[in-house]
């Protein structure tokens, strides 16, 4: 097999070149082994032939002595022919092939040693140049000079090495064929009397002879061409190697751009490794060796951005950011960095211009899962993913088509707006920023139950009634599927950023709306006041003992004393407290104080609408208030500085709380009593909301003006389930602190328990309000 190495490819020192060199070296080693074996066999054949000649000569002489008149001439002719045959084998095979092995293959090995040595020196120079800190100029200059000298030496040696390889590959066939053909002619002479048998091979031998002549001519021509290329490339100016990288979207091999970059690993030590990167098929991939399967960094460049990085010690760094991760890379020079950044930007633009199965390609990529407890691993069994979430969301009226362009069968959603989107509109929504729209996949992301219910309570029809209320009045055209991207993008920005099509309510309309919502809240509060909040725990004593024992052995827990109860809440103390049967007292006074509140403000505003709508559990009115400019963390100074999120807790709706949190509500904002949403959820016994706030980062150590924490309130109210959740969250936090700064998101058992409560609060809330005794479960 003839393997030719390209001179241009060797200057890139690419994985393809390294793979070709490795294949050539293996092929040459195999050739050398076979030639050595053939020479040894030839020597054995010649030695055996000489013994055969001697024995044959003695045999002929014996016949002559016996017969006196024998056909000695015919017999005697066999011996000279055998001598000629083995003599030809000695010259054609043994001598010629030994010369080829000793001369040509020896030169190849010497060139290989020089190439391996200079390759190691170049690798060391590249690493030293990459590690030179920007603030030490003398080290930078020294590293740059060493790299320049090493590259120059490498180019000379690698070109000589490639020339040696190509000449050897061209010559080997003619040398071997020449020796074999000479040996065959010797056999033709020897088997003169068997000419009829060999005559069948004569056309083949003539053909091989013609091929030999042509091979010699071709080899001489190839040698001249290679020497000419070698001389031409040798004379080129390689002082601007960094400018040779160019983005070519129409490349024959589908690779728009490729080259070496240093990549920062995602491990705890943030190590840097040099890898061969390439942009192909709208993906950014890298590989260590040519035979390795490429590792995909960005599966679809339409979902990513690229930016310079000047806040780290290394020079020439840039970052490619996708919805799920980011990749920090380093080029060898500023020109190369600019070339790569431009190439990624061009790829993004090219990907959006291309027509075809864009939706199918992009749907392979999962988006960021906001607030998910399982973002680092496999989705939990109770969370919905794929077709289940898709079917539930698309079943809502208006959701079967994209909210903004009408394309059927959308596969993406904006979770803070509660709408479904097509592939193109989802990319535009991402570019708006998460303060406007948070995009997730309906088929690939894991959907928590509360988030899925949020999507099902809003929908495209509800949101469009708000954000497109005046579209027809203003004569604005709504884009359709297949319209140019820039037109769709302009419409979406006008709709959600500028809010150009929203109908602003008059003062009287706003007052009517707020009064109506406050009346709904009053009726709801009356209903809630009639319910008992205290109930038995969902856990039996044996379950609690096993649960806390698990956490006791998982980390070294610090004992926490409750200032209100005076009970030492260590793991054992918690078990003793939770094992006791709760009393049947009704809702605490702190939880009752708001049930009869009905305050008429002096001034009506969208913030006040959001305030009362949150308590009245009216998501459409909440979405309308946000669209009209309501501040999600609006403070009602006439009602103890409560916020919409605190009012959502009062209303008892888990989905309402989730909607506010997805729209950037502060989970730790306190009222005039120093109580945050977690305090209020604990006082009211809303277990599902407590679970939600803990998942979203609520501070369970925050104390109100009476120095009471949520845990102290839960202990005082003897709410076993909420105490369990708060203690488990505290233990999980301590476990993570004990494991160090590189620990994962939390214990799997802790996550499973929280998933159980989330599932019940969203899909089976009656389980959190039932009355049962411990002996019934145990």
Automatic annotation (TrEMBL):
Identify the gene encoding this protein: acap2
What's written under domain?
Answer: The BAR domain mediates homodimerization, it can neither bind membrane nor impart curvature, but instead requires the neighboring PH domain to achieve these functions. PH domain binds phospholipids including phosphatidic acid, phosphatidylinositol 3-phosphate, phosphatidylinositol 3,5-bisphosphate (PIP2) and phosphatidylinositol 3,4,5-trisphosphate (PIP3). May mediate protein binding to PIP2 or PIP3 containing membranes.
What regulates the activity here? GAP activity stimulated by phosphatidylinositol 4,5-bisphosphate (PIP2) and phosphatidic acid.
Composition bias, kind Basic and acidic residues: at what positions? 355-366
A Pfam family annotated for this UniProt entry: Ank_2
Q: What is this protein called?
A: Arf-GAP with coiled-coil, ANK repeat and PH domain-containing protein
Q: Where is this region: Disordered?
A: 355-384
Gene3D superfamilies according to UniProt: Ankyrin repeat-containing domain, Arf GTPase activating protein, Arfaptin homology (AH) domain/BAR domain, Pleckstrin-homology domain (PH domain)/Phosphotyrosine-binding domain (PTB)
Q: What's its job?
A: GTPase-activating protein for the ADP ribosylation factor family.
């Amino acid at each position: 097999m003839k393997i030719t190495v390209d001179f241009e490819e060797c200057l890139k020192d690419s994985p393809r070149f390294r793979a070709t060199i490795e294949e050539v070296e293996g092929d040459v080693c195999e050739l050398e082994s076979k030639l050595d074996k053939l020479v040894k066999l030839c020597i054995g054949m010649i030695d055996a032939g000489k013994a055969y000649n001697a024995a044959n000569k003695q045999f002929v002489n014996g016949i002559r002595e016996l017969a006196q008149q024998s056909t000695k001439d015919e017999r005697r002719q066999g011996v000279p022919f055998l001598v000629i045959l083995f003599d030809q084998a000695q010259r054609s095979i043994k001598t010629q092939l030994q010369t080829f092995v000793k001369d040509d293959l020896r030169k190849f090995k010497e060139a290989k040693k020089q190439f391996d040595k200079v390759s190691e020196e170049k690798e060391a120079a590249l690493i030293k140049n990459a590690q030179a800190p920007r603030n030490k100029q003398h080290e930078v200059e020294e590293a740059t000079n060493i790299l320049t000298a090493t590259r120059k030496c490498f180019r000379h040696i690698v070109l000589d090495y490639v020339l040696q390889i190509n000449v050897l590959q061209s010559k080997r066939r003619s040398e071997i064929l020449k020796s074999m053909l000479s040996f065959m002619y010797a056999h033709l002479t020897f088997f003169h009397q068997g000419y009829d048998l060999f005559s069948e091979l004569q056309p083949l031998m003539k053909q091989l002879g013609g091929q030999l002549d042509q091979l010699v001519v071709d080899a001489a021509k190839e040698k001249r061409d290679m020497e000419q290329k070698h001389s031409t490339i040798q004379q080129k100016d390689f002082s601007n190697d960094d400018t040779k990288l160019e983005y070519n979207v129409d490349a024959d091999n589908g690779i728009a751009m490729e080259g070496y970059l240093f990549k920062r690993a995602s491990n705890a030590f943030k190590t840097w490794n040099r890898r061969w990167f390439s942009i192909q098929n709208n993906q950014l991939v890298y590989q260590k060796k040519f035979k390795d399967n490429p590792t995909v960094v960005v599966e679809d460049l339409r979902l990513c951005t690229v930016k310079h990085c000047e806040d780290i010690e290394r020079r020439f760094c840039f970052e490619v950011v996708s919805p799920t991760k980011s990749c920090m890379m380093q080029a060898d020079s500023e020109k190369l960095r600019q070339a790569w950044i431009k190439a990624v930007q061009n790829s993004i633009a090219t990907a959006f211009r291309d027509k075809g199965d864009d939706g199918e390609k992009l749907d392979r990529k999962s988006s960021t899962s906001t607030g998910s407890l399982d973002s680092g691993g496999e989705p939990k069994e109770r969370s919905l993913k794929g077709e289940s979430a898709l079917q539930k969301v698309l079943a809502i009226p208006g959701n079967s088509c994209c909210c903004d362009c009408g394309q059927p069968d959308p596969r993406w959603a904006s979770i803070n707006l509660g709408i479904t989107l097509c592939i193109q509109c989802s990319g535009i929504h991402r570019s708006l920023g998460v303060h406007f729209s948070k995009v997730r996949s309906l088929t690939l992301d894991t959907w928590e139950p509360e988030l899925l219910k949020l999507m099902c309570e809003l929908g495209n029809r509800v949101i469009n009634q708000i954000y497109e209320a005046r579209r027809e009045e203003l004569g604005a055209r709504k884009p359709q599927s297949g319209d140019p991207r820039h037109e769709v993008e302009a419409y979406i920005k006008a709709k959600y950023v500028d809010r150009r099509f929203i109908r602003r309510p008059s003062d009287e309309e706003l007052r009517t709306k707020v009064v109506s919502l406050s009346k709904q809240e009053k009726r709801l509060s009356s209903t809630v006041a009639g319910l008992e909040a205290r109930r038995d725990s969902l856990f039996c004593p044996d379950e609690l003992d096993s649960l806390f024992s698990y956490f006791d052995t998982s980390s070294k827990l610090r004992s926490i004393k409750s200032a209100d109860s005076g009970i030492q809440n260590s793991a054992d103390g918690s078990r003793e407290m939770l094992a006791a049967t709760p009393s049947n007292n009704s809702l605490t006074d702190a939880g009752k104080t708001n049930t009869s509140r009905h305050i008429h403000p002096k001034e009506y505003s969208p913030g006040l609408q959001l305030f009362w709508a949150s308590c009245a559990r009216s998501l459409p009115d909440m979405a309308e208030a946000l669209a009209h400019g309501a501040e999600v963390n609006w403070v009602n100074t006439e009602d103890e500085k409560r916020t919409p999120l605190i009012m959502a807790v009062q209303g008892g709706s888990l989905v309402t709380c989730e909607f506010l949190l997805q729209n950037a509500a502060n989970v730790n904002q306190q009222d005039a009593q120093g109580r945050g949403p977690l305090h209020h959820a604990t006082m009211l016994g809303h277990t599902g909301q407590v679970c939600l706030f803990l998942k979203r980062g609520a501070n369970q150590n925050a104390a109100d003006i009476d120095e009471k924490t949520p845990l102290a309130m839960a202990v005082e109210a003897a709410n076993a389930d909420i105490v369990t959740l708060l203690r488990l969250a505290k233990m999980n936090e301590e476990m993570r602190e004990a494991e160090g700064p590189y620990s994962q998101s939390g214990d799997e058992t802790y996550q499973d328990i929280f998933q159980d409560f989330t599932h019940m609060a969203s899909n089976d809330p009656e389980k959190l309000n039932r009355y049962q005794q411990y002996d019934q479960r145990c």
